[in-house]
Amino acid sequence: MIKYMKGKYKIVTFGCQMNVHESEKAAGLLEEMGYAPTESAEDADVVLFNTCCIRDTAEKRAFGNIGALKSLKRSRSGMLIIVLGCMTEQDGYTELFKSKYPFVDIVLGTRNLSVLRAKIEEKVRAGKRVFDTAVPENFLEADENTPVTRTSYPNAWLNIMYGCNNFCSYCIVPYVRGREVSRDIESILSEAREVVAAGYKEITLLGQNVNSYNGNGVNFAELLQKIDQIEGKFRIRFMTSHPKDFNEEIAAVMAASSKICNGIHLPVQAGSNAVLKSMNRRYTREKYLSLVDMMREKLGEGVGITTDIMVGFPGETDADFNDTMELVRTVRFSNAFTFIYSPRKGTPAASMPQIPYEVKRARIGELIKLQNAITKELSDAYMGKIEEILIEDLSAKYDGSVCGRTESGRLVTVKGEKDLIGSFKTVEITASKSASLFGEILL
Ligand code: SF4
User: Fold this and answer.
1) Same domain, yes or no, for 286 and 208?
2) 60 pLDDT more than 60
3) What are the distances in angstroms from CA 364 to CA 122, 322, 361?
4) In this structure, are 343 and 407 located in the same domain?
5) Is 371 inside any structural domain?
6) CA distance linking residue 270 with residue 281, whole number of Å
């Protein structure tokens, strides 16, 4: 091993849970090389940015953070700055890093994580900057052998597939993360058994569209069933689902299981059929509403349904937006992640006629107000209920408190200390404040 590789590393992650898990793999690789974690970039010998290009804001933040290291690098020339992730895979970005970010040492694509070690060694030996975003042929196989330093106890993230085939007209994912590939079912099951044996209390299955998992003919419902059969007390969650692929078979497996949580994140994006068509989502509002009815029938009224909604998509009229508002009133989501559409270069929607920002801003304001009112009403209805929660973390807001989630995904804050993290507790809900619930531990 190269002597230089004894030192500290810091990873800065942007974007979704997929990236959080990929950062856990990057951490595993760096630790295998002899690096130890640090919180401070000033202290670090390696700073790795795991980037995301799905939203313009995440990309701007990433560039801001990378740029902020320019002067530090000047004073510590031995420090390695690495940029990884889907941002680097966009057309012209390698050139951009070559010319505008000369202090960045290594640039790698999302699927090049397995070569991180080799690329660091190459940079240290030869001194030349390294750029590699070409997808390795053995990507899946190499990924299986990547060590993981998990950082999300009691939850363990678990990839079941990579990439996406859907080409929603606003989304850059299929262009930068490639087409769908499913992991081998035996590898997934063995990783699941491993994390349960290691004491993790929740497994979250990850993929851009988990419902279309296909591991040698095994579909997503069958995969869920097999993970459900692993012995032990733990929860199973999954994300993200796609309304065109979520079906009764999956809901039936969820209903029959005591481990699969009674909650689902099902992005609707818009409530207007014209907008959904233009987004290439391949379902209608009627289909979405029928899925919601089916889920409530199979999983009970208590099923937590959360969603993503985008406003201001090109061509969205007042009537289209009203359809979205109407759908939100009808479904009454537990929570909604709302976004203003922002064009991503290279996607079909970026070249459609755009609507003014003021219109988008006004619409998102209205939507947030509506969803907040619904969330508050749903929270108030929890008062006095008895729920089992899995304690996940210390409360960021309240001293001497910890927080956990109900099966349906609602966050509950209770009095307690760090030693409770990872335990299941039965609580009574005693107060609610918009999306937050507060409770007392009974057992
Ligand atoms: S399903 Fe659509 S929005 Fe989701 S990753 Fe695939 S292309 Fe993007």
Assistant:
1) no
2) yes
3) 48, 12, 5
4) no
5) yes
6) 10
The answer to the question of residue 273 being in a domain is: yes
Q: pTM, whole model, 2 decimals?
A: 0.94
Give a yes or no: residue 146 inside a domain: no
The pick from 164, 212, 279, 344 for probing ligand 1's pocket by mutation, whose C-beta has the most ligand atoms within 8 angstroms, reads: 164
Supply 256's token pair: 């029959």
- Give the type of residue at 56: D
Q: Distance between CA atoms of 262 and 258, rounded to whole angstroms?
A: 9
Report the distance separating Cα 180 and Cα 287, nearest Å.
Answer: 24
- Minimal CA–CA distance to 433: which of 388, 377, 394, 391? 377
CATH number of residue 109's parent domain: 3.40.50.12160
pLDDT at residue 141, rounded to an integer: 87
Extract the runs of DSSP E, i.e. beta strands, from 369-435. 386-394, 401-405, 411-415, 424-433
Predicted pLDDT of residue 5: 62
Assess if residue 145 is contained within a domain: no
Residue carrying the six token digits 């970026």? 350
* pLDDT value for 134: 84
**Distance, CA 442 to ligand 1 centroid (Å)?**
42
Q: What is the DSSP letter of 179?
A: S
Give the end of a domain, one of 381, 401, 416. Answer: 381
Lookup result for tokens 């759908």: 327
Distance from residue 417's CA to the centre of ligand 1 (Å)? 39
Query: What's the structural domain count of the chain?
Result: 4
What is the per-residue pLDDT across 85-118, written as a single tens digit (0 to 9) for each? Answer: 989 989 899 999 999 999 999 999 988 888 999 9
Q: Ligand 1: which residue has its CA nearest to atom 2?
A: 168
Kindly tell me if the per-residue pLDDT of 6 is higher than 80: no
Q: Distance from the CA of 170 to the center of ligand 1, in angstroms?
A: 9
Nearest Cα to 25, choosing from 114, 130, 127?
114
We report the CATH number of the domain holding residue 282 as 3.30.750.200
* Ligand 1: nearest atom to the Cα of 240: 4
Segment holding 214, helix H or strand E: strand 214-215
Q: What is the CATH number of the domain that holds 216?
A: 3.30.750.210
Same domain (yes/no): 69, 109: yes
What is the span of the domain harbouring residue 318? 269-381
